[in-house]
Design a protein that fits this description.
This protein is α/β, with parallel strands linked by helices. The protein is built from six helices and seven strands.
């Protein structure tokens, strides 16, 4: 783990144990710690994919902030939808990942990446970045080869864009390419600057 930010800045904590988010945050070259938020990620009745991502990013940040008063805490969560309606989350199993990618074949998914910076003595900053991804027509053989090689069972939509998942995609459109990986660095950098953190 990295050391906390030196005074006068508060400590910075990433409320996640995701390897992908940790690697992304390291790009900003600011020291931080990580901690699992321990939040139930189940959707609430009637929630849209975007609402899920926003709420869970806030709940993750808040859960860790309660244990570390005075720290800046980053929370993030990602969901996806097909045709703007059906929520697509983390598959968890091979069978569910197969079903997700079969459903995505030849179609457009929208990935919603929620972001929250929980701040001491100031309102939390919250946003959600949408990324549109068009998938190629995928054969069952391609899906099986990809899943066996990548095992993306902890990724929303089963498509690990920072790895072989990019080969399944025809195009993507969004304001921040890092959002699709799991942590929108452009928006986060703006939030940190607004909160008094000096970035290199």
């Amino acid at each position: 783990m990295a050391s906390p930010l030196a005074p006068p800045h508060p400590a910075l904590i990433l409320a996640s144990t995701s390897v992908y988010r940790r690697e992304l945050l390291q790009r900003l070259r600011v020291p931080f710690d990580t901690q699992a938020p321990g939040v139930d990620e189940s959707a609430l009745p009637g929630e849209t994919p975007e609402q899920i991502a926003r709420r869970l990013s806030q709940e993750k940040a808040r859960a860790v902030a309660l244990q570390h008063p005075g720290a800046l805490v980053i929370g993030s969560d990602q969901t996806a939808s097909i045709d703007g309606l059906n929520t697509v989350g983390k598959p968890g199993t091979h069978e569910r990942a197969v079903a997700q990618l079969r459903a995505a074949s030849g179609r457009e998914l929208v990935f919603y990446t929620g972001l929250c910076l929980w701040r001491p003595n100031a309102p939390a900053l919250v946003d959600c970045i949408a990324t549109r991804v068009r998938f190629r027509d995928l054969s069952d053989e391609e899906i099986e080869r990809y899943l066996l090689a990548e095992k993306p069972y902890d990724c929303a939509g089963s498509a690990k864009s920072e790895g072989l998942g990019v080969t399944l995609m025809q195009s993507q459109e969004g304001p921040d390419p890092t959002a699709l990986i799991g942590l929108p660095l452009m928006r986060l950098a703006a939030m940190l600057r607004e909160s008094g953190v000096r970035l290199p």
